[in-house]
Structure formats: C-alpha cells, structure tokens
Design a protein that fits this description.
24 helices, about 650 residues, alpha/beta, disordered C terminus, 14 strands
C-alpha cells in the first residue's frame, strides 16, 4: 500500500512525496532516529538537534549524524534567509554564475506563482558540535530569555552553508477565490493580502485572484532604510490624492491605486512614526499586498490599521507627542460606534497571531492543520464561503440582534412608563397600577416568545438577494443613536400613553359593568399594552412566518386566559385575595372594556401603518427595495405561469370505434 504522510504543513508533505517518486523514501521516524531508503538501500540517521522555524530566522534546521558517522546540518527556509547564509562561492571557477543562475531560477518560479524554498547543508566537526550543543542545551533549559538565547545559538550554527538546491511548489487557488474577493470589494470591504511568499509570487497570486487589476501601475516599496521607506511612502501618498478607496468596485482598472510592500521594508516601518504614513497610504489604496511577511508582521499590520481607524480623526495622531488617555478612550468609543472592524482570515499556524489581533478571526480548515481554526472566532471549509458568511449570515445576525435589542428596550420602557404616568393620579404614593403577578408574566411568558422567534427566523430580504446585491452590506443603521432612542423613548412614550390614558379616562365606575377598583383598571391597561406591543412587532417584522404569527397571537390570547386562571389557582390553594375576585367576569362582560381595547389598537395600528407607509414610499432603505423587487418577480413568475396554455392531452379509449 502507498504510505500516507502527515506533517505540520502541506509543503513538507509535498516534498516528501516528490522525493519518494524519485527513489528517496521516508520509511520511519522516532524521537531520535530517521530511517530513509535511497533507491532501495536503507539508511538510518540519528537526529541530534532540531531548530524549529521562527519568524525572525525564517528557516528550520536539523543536526543529524549519518550512517557514515559524519555530523551534518540540514537547513531549509526562505530564499532570502538561506542565500544570505551561504558560503562564498568565489573559490569556484563558475561560483558567481551558479549563484546568479539560482537567483534567476527563483525569480522564474516566483513569476509562475510557485512557492519557493532553498535547501542547504553543512558538515560539522565532532568537537565543534559538542561545544555548540552544550551552549544550546543550556539555552534551551534557561527560563529567562530562552527564545533569544536559542535564536542566538541557531544563528551561530546556520552560517557558511552549502546550497543543495531549490524547490518550487504549486499552491493552487481554491475554487471561487477571485469571485469572492470581487464580491467583498463590491460590498465596500478593503482587502489586504499578507503572505510570506516572494514578491513575484505574491503579485502573481494577487493578479490571478483579481486583487491587482492593473499590474503595470502597482506602487511597489522595496527600501533598505527607514529614511528611504518614509520618503517613498510619502511620494505614494501624494500620488493617491485625498480620497480614500474603501471599495474597488467604484473604480476602473486605470484609476485604481494598488500598493505592494515586502517584509524587510516593513521592518523599517513598523514601530516608528513611518507606520502612520503606511496606514494613510493603505487607506487610500484599493488593494494592498504585503509579501515576505512574518507572523509578527501580520499581527503588527492589523494593529497599525486598527489604530489608524481609531485615532486618525484626532489631532494627536499626526503629531509625535503621546495622545492623552482621555482622548484615547473617547476615540476608542467613537470607533466602536462608527468605524469599521478588522477581519482576518487564515489557514495556518503562521496566521494565529494575526487572527488573535483582529476584531474577528476566521480560520480555514484545510491541509495546513487546525491551528488557525482553534484560534479563530469562526471556522469555514473554503475561502469562498466567506462571502456568504459576511453578506448573508453577517447581515442577518446584525439585523436580528438590532431588532432584539431595540424591541426589548421598547417593551420594557413602555411597561415602566405606565407606572410613571399613574403616579400623577395617585399623589406619588408609589401605588402600582399593575400588580406584581402580571408584571412577572409580562416579560417571562407573554412578551418573550414573539421577539425570540423574530430574532431567530426574521430576515430583511431573501438570501439570494443579499448575495446578488453586496452593496447592501454594512449600510444598515438599525442600531444608530437616532434609531435606538426613537424606539426606546419616542415609541415607548406614545405606546404607554395610549395604553394608559385611553382606559383611564374612558373607564366608567357607574352602571352594571362599571370598574370600581384599581385592579380592574390595571388589567385593562395591561391587556391594552400587550396588544399594542404585539401590533408593533408584527409591523416590525419583514417576513411573516406561521410560527411567528401564531406565537404573537397566542401570547396575546394567553393574557385573557391568565386573569381568570390566576384567580382560580388562588382559590384552589386556599389563598384567596379579594382584590382579584371577579375581575375577569366583570371586564369580559363589559362592552366598554372591549371598546377601549379596540380604540387603543386602532390608534396604534393607524399611526404605525402611516409611519411604515411613509418610510416605504418616501424613505425606503436597501432592504425595502430588495423585498419589493423579490415580490414583483414572484408576481411576474406566477402570472406567466398561470397564463401558459394547458397542453392538450389525447386519450385513447379501448374498444372505441374508429372514424
């Protein structure tokens, strides 16, 4: 059977499988030994040291003793890290040509979109290795500053290497990546591509996934000093003008500003005042590609852009003096209300720091392992699912949570204001117009189910419409300050006033069915209020489902059942309370009670209907337009289907005479 290999990255598995096809097989691995087969001949290597990959070194090394007893260092890593650690090849007649040919091959592979690695080795003397291993073991056992000491030992060993060769691995794009990036751009989402690949590879991938649309006009920053990097970035900022491009859909390929910067240049930018210039330039470009980036740099880019979103509005951001703590707190609060959020998506362990630094981290479960998924907020199987996650599930989640919050405040403030109004008529004695039992079931039983169902199944438009029109993403202001206080105070004030003053001023204490006590009046107000907030949630919903309508009607009907049921329960448990006796019998038989409820509901429905009609016809939002378009399509399809002629069916009856 063909063996199945597992490794920390798919690149390593691909290299092992490729070596197997060439006759170099990986047979067995233990903690101290590795067994290999070279064209059928088995060899065992003793693993002495393993220097794991770090983002600072950008390479990984293994010290092993071969079957011939010679100790060798094997190192693989990025070409920029390995080529700088090679020995001087000038002693060879064609040494310079060999290095130049290697760089040319690396460039050709990168231009084809292949991921390149360099492999090198070095023979170590036994005495030298023993001396070095003693220092390495001491550094590995150190508690304080262990990482830097281990890195120092690794750098001491990884010098004067002999180049063995280079590898190039094709990293195919997943299905639907260009379409998803275009979809996100049309939704007004700025897309950054941060990768550890070579610059040529990164640009090639960015072009293939439609992130770079005008490759001839890309602004590329490759500088070797902080001064030169700052000068170059300022020149690019002047070329971009003052407008900030938050979406690529508004610009054609000729007017787009696209920016590429590499990791070494980013080292001179991050942690200095130049990072503010970088953030300003990135905000003005339609797309940004960062190549040769380490995991720490990926996290730092997220931090820089978050700080730019928070503090770029302040006068302190462009100055060198530190921002006061009060100002930082104010702009953070302002950013949480108005500005956008940082979303990071990755599939490997080198993306973990970026995922944790962002506001929302999304991990892709693939061949890179589960490290990204385990450290993310959401997990998806492929990149193309990101479009549906944001445009459909994201919008639905915001829409439903916004209505849940606003309606919860609305119904509770309306209920509380009823008690407030009554204090003006009871001498501010603290007497409650609605008893504590009804107050308990109001939130727990009667008004909780409709809003929970609405926050679960309601949707502003069809899911297909949300995907077909990405421009609707992030345009909703359902939880803006005006909309929130409009629902929390203005609507609550009108609802509670209607539910209180209509029964209070129209209730008669004379006649056969007159209400002579406060509890009868409170019951009328309670049922009126429950019906009005039921009308409100029905008008609030954009898609009625049978379970939602049934829950709303049932919650209202249960109020009529609760009043006599509570009286019966008190009598059944020998705990009678005279103030509750006969309320249901008197009220349900009183015509004025039903007329009061009818008046409250007509007024509530009337002004809410007018408000809704004015909004739909004069100030419709994107969701209203999409819902109307969907309704028109359904009517057109139904009309065309009904207008089609019924095909004639020929029926042959057995035994019938032929003409």
């Amino acid at each position: 059977d063909k063996p199945s290999f597992q490794g920390p990255s798919p690149d390593e598995v691909a290299l092992v499988e490729a070596a197997q096809q060439l006759g170099f097989e990986f047979l067995q691995r233990s903690s101290k030994h590795v067994k290999l087969a070279f064209h059928g001949r088995e060899f065992t290597f003793e693993v002495l040291n393993v220097l794991e990959f770090t983002s600072e070194r950008r390479k990984m090394s293994v010290v092993a003793r071969g079957p011939d007893g010679v100790i060798r260092l094997f190192c693989k890593g990025a070409d920029s890290a390995i080529m700088s650690c090679l020995r001087n090849y000038k002693f060879l007649p064609d040494g310079d040509a060999l290095v130049e040919s290697t760089h040319e091959s690396l460039s050709n592979f990168a231009c084809q979109g292949l991921r390149t690695l360099c492999v090198a080795s070095k023979v170590l003397e036994e005495e030298y290795w023993e001396e070095w291993d003693e220092k390495y073991q001491e550094a590995a056992a150190c508690i304080d500053d262990r990482d830097s000491r281990v890195a120092s030992c690794a750098q001491e060993l990884e010098v004067d290497l002999n180049l063995l060769g280079i590898t190039a691995i094709e990293d195919k794009l997943q299905e639907g990546v260009p379409e998803t990036i275009q979809l996100l751009s049309n939704a007004g989402i700025k897309v950054f591509m941060i990768t550890g690949d070579k610059q040529e590879t990164a640009i090639s991938i960015a072009i293939s996934c439609n992130l770079i649309q005008n490759s001839d006009a890309v602004m590329i920053c490759n500088e070797s000093s902080t001064k030169d990097a700052k000068k170059k970035l300022k020149e690019f900022v002047k070329d971009c003008g003052q407008s900030k491009y938050y979406t690529s859909g508004y610009l054609d390929a000729s007017s787009r500003k696209e920016f590429v910067i590499d990791g070494p240049t980013l080292d001179h930018v991050l942690g200095t005042e130049t990072e503010k210039v970088f953030a300003e330039l990135a905000s003005r470009c339609a797309s940004v590609v960062i190549c040769r980036a380490s995991p720490a740099q990926k996290s730092a880019v997220v931090r820089v852009m978050k700080e730019y979103q928070m503090f770029s509005h302040s006068k302190w951001y462009s100055e060198k003096q530190p921002m006061p703590k009060i100002a930082r707190w104010y702009y953070k609060m302002l950013w949480k209300v108005w500005d956008g959020r940082m979303l990071a998506i990755g599939d490997g362990a080198n993306d973990v720091a970026m995922l944790q630094s962002s506001d929302v981290g999304i991990g892709i479960l693939g061949k890179e392992g589960r490290q990204a998924v385990n450290n993310s907020d959401f997990a998806i199987g492929q990149f193309r699912f990101l479009g549906r996650l944001l445009l459909v599930h994201g919008q639905l989640s915001y829409y439903r949570l916004a209505h849940l919050i606003k309606y919860s405040f609305y119904k509770n403030i309306s209920f509380a204001l009823v008690f407030f109004y009554y204090q003006f008529f009871c001498g501010f004695s603290g007497q409650a117009i609605i008893d504590s039992y009804k107050a308990t079931v109001f939130n727990v039983v009667l008004s909780s189910l409709p809003i929970l169902i609405l926050a679960t199944v309601d949707k502003p438009a069809e899911m297909k419409s949300l995907m077909d029109h990405p421009q609707t993403y992030n345009n909703s202001r359902a939880l803006s300050t005006w909309n929130f206080w409009k629902a929390a105070l203005l609507k609550s004030t009108m609802t509670s006033a209607l539910a209180f003053f209509v029964p209070y001023f129209s209730t008669s204490i004379s006649g056969v069915y007159g209400a002579e006590d406060i509890y009868s009046l409170g019951t009328t107000i309670f049922i009126a209020l429950l019906g009005i907030i039921g009308i409100e949630i029905l008008m609030l919903s954009k898609s009625w489902t049978w379970i939602f309508v049934v829950a709303t009607v049932l919650s209202y009907v249960l109020a009529f059942v609760f009043v006599p049921l509570w009286e019966a329960l008190l009598n059944a448990f020998n705990y009678p309370q005279p103030e509750y006796g006969g309320i249901a019998k008197v009220l349900y038989a009183s015509p004025s009670f039903w007329l009061q409820l009818l008046l409250c509901y007509c007024v509530a429905f009337g002004w809410r209907f007018i408000d809704r009609a004015v909004k739909l016809h004069l100030f419709p939002d994107d969701y209203d337009v999409l819902a109307e378009l969907h309704l028109k399509r359904r009517r057109t399809a139904k009309r065309s289907k009904s207008s089609q002629p019924t095909p004639a069916v020929e029926i042959e009856i057995e035994g019938a005479p032929e003409n």
